[in-house]
Amino acid sequence: GLSQIGQIAVNAYDTDRAIAFYRDTLGMTFLFQAGTLGFFDCGGVRLMLSPPESPEFAHPASVLYYKVADIQASHGALVSRGVAFIGEPHIIHRTPQYDLWMAFFKDSEGNTLALMCEQPKA
Hints:
Layout lengths: L6 E5 L3 H11 L3 E6 L2 E6 L2 E6 L13 E4 L3 H10 L9 E5 L3 E9 L5 E9 L2
Parallel strand pairs: 1-4, 5-8
Antiparallel strand pairs: 2-3, 3-4, 6-7, 7-8
C-alpha cells in the first residue's frame, strides 16, 4: 500500500510572490525554482508551488497543517513577519497525554494553512 507522501502541490497564481511568502515569511527551506514552479523541503516531503494546470485545478489547496513544538512562539514569530491569522491559537481536542492546539492563517495566494501542536500534559 501507499505510505509516504513525496510531494504536495499548492496553487500559486503569482509564483514569485508565493515563493517569497513561504521562504521569507514562513521561513521554509527553499529548494529551487523551475520556471513557474517553486519547490520547498518540508521535513523530507517536497512542497511544490505552481499555477493551476487547468481550470479544474483552479481552487484553494487542501489545508496544510505545520507541526510545531511551541504554537504560541511560532504564532508570535509569524505575526511579527506579517502573517494574518484567522484566529488565536486554541485547543481543538484534549487527550490524557496532550492537548491539540491549532491556529489558522492564509498564505499569499489565499490558501488556508494551519499551525498544530500536541502540547504534552504535565
